[in-house]
Known about the structure:
This protein is an alpha+beta fold. The chain has helices at residues 7-46, 117-121, 125-145, 158-169, 177-181, 231-240, 246-261, 275-278, 297-300, 302-311; strands spanning 51-52, 55-56, 185-187, 194-205, 211-221, 225-227, 243-244, 265-274, 289-296. Strands 7-4-5-8-9 form a five-stranded mixed sheet, sandwiched between helices. A two-stranded antiparallel ribbon has the order 1-2. The protein has a two-stranded antiparallel sheet with strand order 3-6.
Amino acid sequence: MAQQDGPDAAATKKRALDAASVSDSSTTDESTRQRRRRRRDRHRQNGTAAHDGDVAVNGPRPSAFEQRRNSLGKAARDPRDEPPTKKRVTVAGQGQKVRAPSPIIESDGLSRPSRGTRQRREDGPEAAEQRLVKMRDAVRTLLECVGEDPDREGLLDTPSRYAKALLEFTSGYQVNVEDIVNNALFHEGHSEMIIVKDIEIHSLCEHHLVPFVGKMHIGYIPSDTVIGLSKLPRIAEMYARRLQIQERLTKEVAHAIMEILKPQGVAVVMESSHLCMVMRGVRQTSTSTITSCVLGCFERKSKTRNEFLSLVGINR
């Protein structure tokens, strides 16, 4: 006859059941750890981080800011200044690129003529004299408005002198680009960088009609054609002798050279002091303003751009 289970037998049975439960849990935990190790190994092989909760095996997950791709952004430009899209067409037997007509230089040789430019250029002697009379009267009015006596000895001829000087300061509107270049384009097969440094620039700020002066550095890499070295300062002077801002002046010179020569690339850097900041407003006498415009290979290739900046002394 079987003995009935006593208290000791019940306790022994409970301990056996608990041990079996712990064994099953340990087996489950070990299986989970093995799966995690296999997953981590796969991530390491793939070069990615595995995560237990919010913590990565290879360190904390980088922020979105740290994961940005570095890129060279294009400088902001006035869309009206952008030439139309140029389609590359190969001429049979020549392998040359045909470019679209330039929007920088008009058919009559004027570059970005302003309103009234052609009328001023076509003035006869009588119309030119009438223009001078109007300008002299305007200057006389200005002298009176600032509290001066335009009839005193020192100011008697000032209206006439200033009118003639202002026409000279803005003579760049009337210049024909073809006259500047004067066929000084030569096929040399040269494909290395050419730089003309320290071109002196004097121009009038269009916001206050006071001067800004400085130096311009021009570099280009020809495709096949080079230009007479003296033509680069002449092109810069043509655009400087207008009512200007430095940003536009830098860009206009670069685009004009690009259209005239069709080189691999053009780079222009200008550094100047603006009297509208020196004589008025903030009155900062030691400040200078640097602007640049890079086109073609100078825009695409950082090494080429850095070489130019180093040679002109900007990367000091």
